[in-house]
């Protein structure tokens, strides 16, 4: 019986090794935890299209919006096989939400870190006919009317939510977050007059450039190339840079050869001039880390988010 069990498990190990050696032999599912059509979705579709040329198999996008961008992580930890055929975009909320609520995953235990890619350009927009001409106007109204000002975000616990509450704490004001599943819903709420402001990434770019929206600030380390006259939070006196960097991961326990194959395919796509044009379109910059360095940054980020959430006292 013992010999039979040993032979059985040995057979499984040989099977796994053979599968890894032949990877990939079928399409890879790429979970994007945001709605279709937003900047992250479009960016991930662009890099997947380039990466599949180097991987030798199709990469199929599957949108899983909800829970502040953590549905992909939940799927990876919730039973996805560690064979490299299911991967996901991993926003910073994956490290943040476990400090705000009970999550069905542990970011330090449940994932294989593949490659770190980039981050966002964030900003706050209002309608062009809004009475708020500057950020100073916003703060003055919020201070005089506690709790009355509203802002849209793509979800509780996102960097947009955290940073807006960080600003409120620093200025001693209160305003009301209205969370949505993604950019499109928040944009419609703003244009429909249901919220005062919209805090999000550059999905608002076209409407800002057309004059329908007014950009009040951006959140990078320096002003953007496309909107050089718009102040950063640092320009406005806040010691804050918020760009929500992200990468790709798979379930825990992936074969190193499979992880390397995915890393190499996406690294080539990340360096492709066509993808660099996509990043420029969405005002994103390359922030590359290999698998080992990404794992180290993941650990550091998890701890940093714990400290930030405790300071703000946020729960979900």
Query: What's the helix-strand series?
Result: HEHEHEHEEHEHEHEHEEHHEH
The number of helical segments is: 11
Kindly report how far apart the N and C termini lie.
Answer: 51 Å
Helix content: 40-55%
What is the CATH homologous superfamily assignment of the largest domain? Answer: Bordetella uptake gene, domain 1
Give the tally of structural domains.
2
Strand content: 15-25%
Question: Can you put this structure into words, describing what you see?
Answer:
This protein has 316 residues and is an alpha/beta fold. The protein has two domains: 27-119 and 245-312, D-Maltodextrin-Binding Protein, domain 2, CATH 3.40.190; 122-218, 3-Layer(aba) Sandwich (D-Maltodextrin-Binding Protein, domain 2), CATH 3.40.190. Helices cover 42% and strands 18% of the residues. It is built from eleven helices and eleven strands. The strands form two sheets. The protein has a six-stranded mixed beta sheet with strand order 2-1-3-10-4-11, with helices on both faces. It has a five-stranded mixed beta sheet with strand order 7-6-8-5-9, with helices on both faces. α2 links the parallel β1 and β2. The protein is globular, with a radius of gyration of 21 Å. The termini are far apart. The mean pLDDT is 93.
